[in-house]
Specification:
- The chain is an all-beta fold.
- Helices cover 0% and strands 58% of the residues.
- Strands 2, 4, 5, 6, 9, 10 and 11 form a seven-stranded mixed β-sheet that branches. A four-stranded antiparallel β-sheet has the order 1-3-8-7, with no helix packed on it.
- A hairpin with a 4-residue loop joins β7 and β8.
């Protein structure tokens, strides 16, 4: 089965930047959309940003103008460039792949990564 592996989380001071990466590995034919969600302690998981294979993007209002999502379809990789980070961005960030279609398999499914911690603090 396809797996998602995230990297790039860590600790940063307010105003700093981080870049998250998520690689999908396996016998992939297509992934309709890839994106990032986050969950802070005591809060529900929320969409941060998503991007389709054609490059159509969607962002949460709270990150517009600060975060940029991009995707390399040839590498089945999605990136999240996070600038001007604030303490309220502190959360576990999860990569999600929607509409995963494997070669020779006719049922598509959604997949979550294991999460990577982002902490913004002075």
């Amino acid at each position: 089965q396809v797996q998602l592996v995230e990297s790039g989380g860590g600790f940063v001071e307010p105003g700093g930047s981080l870049r998250l990466s998520c690689v999908a590995s396996g016998n992939i034919f297509e992934i309709v959309s890839m994106g990032w969600h986050r969950q802070a302690p005591g809060k529900q998981r929320e969409l941060v940003a998503a991007i389709t294979g054609g490059g159509v993007t969607d962002y949460a209002n709270s990150v517009k103008g600060r975060f940029t999502i991009s995707r390399d379809n040839a590498k089945n990789t999605v990136y999240l460039q996070m600038n001007s980070l604030q303490p309220e961005d502190t959360a576990v960030y999860y990569c999600k792949a929607d509409g995963v279609l494997e070669v020779g398999v006719y049922n598509e499914y959604d997949l979550w990564g294991q999460g990577t911690q982002v902490t913004v603090s002075s």
